[in-house]
Amino acid sequence: MRFDGRFLAKDLASDDGALHDIRFFTRSKLYPIASRCGLPNDWPGEEKLDEIVERSGGLFIFVQTLSQLLEGGLDPDEYLTEALSVGSGSALERLYNLYTTAIRSRIDRNIEAFRLAVGTIIVVGQYQPLSDEAVAKLAGVRTNIVTTLVNKLGSLLYRDAGTNGGIRVRHLSVIDFLTGSSTPEDLKVNIKQAHHGVGVGCLKVMIQGLRFNICGIESSFMSNRDVIDLQSRVNHNMSSALQYSCLHWSDHLSHIDHAPDEALITALSEFTKVPRLLYWMEALSVMGRVPVGDSLLRQVPQWLKGLELAVERRLDDAVKFILAFREPMTTSAPHTYVSGLAFIPTETEIWGYVKGSFRNLLVVAEGRKKSWPDRPHIFTGHRGKVSSVSYSPDGRRIISGSYDRTVRIWDAETRAAVGKPLEGHTDRIRSVAYSPDGRRIISGSYDNTIRMWDAETGAAVGKPLEGHDNVISSVAYSPDGRRIISGSYDKTIHMWDAEAGAAVGEPLEGHNDVVSSVAYSPDGRRVISGSYDKTIRIWDAETGAAVGKPLEGHTDRIHSVAYLPDGRRIISGSSDNTIRMWDAETGAAVGKPLEGHNDVINGVAYSSDGRRIISGSYDKTILMWDAETGAAVGKPLEGHDNVISSVAYSPDGRRVISGSYDKTIRIWDAETGAAVGGELEGHNDVISGVAYSPDGRRIISSSYGKTICMWDAETGAAVGKPLEGHTHWVLSVAYSPDGRRIISGSYDNTIRMWDAETGAAVGKPLEGHTEAISSVAYSPDGRQIISGSYDKTILMWDAETGAAVGKPLEGHNDVISSVAYSPDGRRVISGSYDRTIRMWDAKTGAAVSKPLEGHTHWVLSVAYSPDGRRIISGSSDNTIRMWNAKTGAAVSKPLEGHTGAISGVAYSPDGRQITSGSFDSTIRMWDTETGAAMGKPLEGHDNVISSVAYSPDGRRVISGSHDDTIRMWDAETGAAVSEPLRGSTNSISTSVDTPGGLYPFSVLSHQPPRICELVGAVEPVIAVSGLSVDSTGWVHHPNGGLLFWVPEDCRNGLICPAILTIPTSGWHRPVRLNLERFSYGPSWTDIKIADP
How far apart, in whole angstroms, are the C-alpha atoms of residue 183 and residue 970? Predict the structure, then answer.
């Protein structure tokens, strides 16, 4: 097995063929030895000197090794005679014989210790040379044995002062000898066994050395950068063997291809148990190496993981943990636990350990996921058009460039964003590419520059490459990674030194319009360029000279060019809606143009085996083609809803990725054309309101996806298309008494009326409120509509004309959450966040009696009994209250049983039952006479219940929930009736749990911030300003420092009365947080219960 130059060995094998140079070199090496040992100056004499020169065969390394061997002996003359007496053969064979002599003369009987130590030195040397102590730990031998071996084998090994005494081999031929077929069996090092041994050694070192808060970080307020002496702490608390093991354990396991022994199985199983995996992640954080974590976990061979299901499951969980919480882990080691553990899914093995071994964590009281989300086939995150996409050479990462001026890195397996966006360009990004070794990313931009980035850390590498005087349209690496080419709107191609970033040679000139696409041939000898001048040009990559004539045939701009993997063909995509194939040698067109797209072709690419071509177009589709015949393969790949800007194959040819102006990246199965992965979790709407039609045949539901849906109450099937027109969340819906109209109230501050039969909008929107409309209702005669709003007022409207009737009803001093008419239409009631219920004269709008007071938190829902004698109200104090509608007095005690806010209440048509829906995800039924709960809670929803209603005949109850479903229940038995109704798109909800109680909320993140208080375990009160989450998800303590981190899908805005998520797009989820026992800051270590 041949090893490359990463060993940084001293290469003394240069041979200019001049024997006098070897002779001179030999004398220079032997003279100091003769002087030290009191031998004659001309030692060893001309005869032996001639023999040394002859045996060297022109290899300086032979003389170097011989001199090192003689240097270490008491009698150099005796060692020289022994070394020269060993057999003849080729120069290399004589060198190997010398190595054998050197080893046997030094190691005595410690053959096994020699093989273990030297095998370890060789395999760790591929990554990082280690000290005597570290090598001994990984090899499983005593340190003194390693030290003695290195001291005695100075002719073969040395300690490199530049790497703190890391042991290296003196020359690559030493490795070739020790691992080759000609080595004596007792001295031979088996590389795979060495990797096996070091892999086990790494696992054992981590099992013994890793621990919670390994660097003693005093406060979770601190980022890693705030710990000024962090590197010193790492070196003090983590031995070099432990640091190496954390970074390279799986590198060694990946070399194992034989059945593992019990030691490896046991060590891997023990290491992958929680909490050691968490301790390892913490170690990566303090070492600043979190970005390599998921790659290390994935390197573990599948066959090895598969030996124990629990191990495979833990490793998979760990990959997802790192990808999900890379930001807090990278920023602050304590937040591996403080922030990461708060949001992990409940059905993972990590959580199973955490809940019994950690305490005082931030609690996700609602909205915690049960399992890791399915892999989406859509990548979302860019705020502008996606202009370019590319796979990493190993297929594990995807990069994308966007008009939002950023480059993003994605995990190709999980579809998760990896790290932060790469920022630096000052204008739109047009093109991105990976280096062949996957270590660098380049991007070309409308700012006329090319930037290089570290693919692992995302850090900018060097200064921007400047030279073009217009937009950079295309960038590419040469196959050996030494050169970069760029095409520009300035009509030129530039070549750059990839290491230095300097321009190489003069610009390549010849095109007379924009150069839109450039590519290297697979052998790196040619460059091709496509241009808006309708031609393709071929260039000599070394000299920059044009090769042959331009390739002509397209009748409009060329946007993309690519080489076939074997270099024999070129393909091009054009604004003439065709793809053309060309002979790369002659430039002749091959076959007829490929036709199928009906708009501009923006991107073309070959599969890795050269059998398929893919093309992306302005027509929003991707087509696959047979590269041999030019025939279309299968149907167009559809899913994007805007121009497709870029397409690429995965390195293994099994996947296709596409970037689009719709700001998303999609992934497809290259064989079937099917989208790969499930839909984004949470993409369906939160159901904000439900209602029955008066005849009980229809159900309507409103959602935060800006739509209203109609359903068949018998079958549960959707009826017609969703009703669309609102520009923001729909919060409330109601039927007119005759069932011919539907009204809806929205966060867009308007009420809309709809034809219940056709779904068509009726008239113009009703405008008058200045904030969101939370509740709407028809009068019993259908002639009027009332609406309650966040602007603290109630408006009355003429249901026929849509005109406002009278002045706004004013009196509440906070959001109005619910309004309702009395059965006789003479009264209106309203519930408010000011904790009161008010009664109003429906004709005059005057307040009737004093506010009804008794609830200790927000009133969320109100309703009249069918006979009009009672009012019921549900509150965030988790109770339902009944009131005398005439006097306003409370009737009986509060109805208690729910453990969360009461979001909806309704009377049965006969007035004998009350149904309530709650934030605790259950529905309860109550006896109106006694107030007693009837039967068990109705369970089935797995999120907040936002609305409940009875069917007109009282036989059914329907419920709408933030789990995006509507459920029907038998009002008598409480049994679920049919499957849940599912429907729309996009999701929003907000709520929070604090020690003082539950606070549901629905507010926009742009509302004015308020000051609120969070009661916590460390401080009696934390004053937090609203909207205090930053762009990366961090919530900061008012006095400075990191409080906790919030995942992106439940982040968009924080507002009081405690911490409140304000999601604003479809994949966000509702979450409420409980900080009652939260330990943070200087007390963050209190979260860990001592290990047994």
Answer: 83
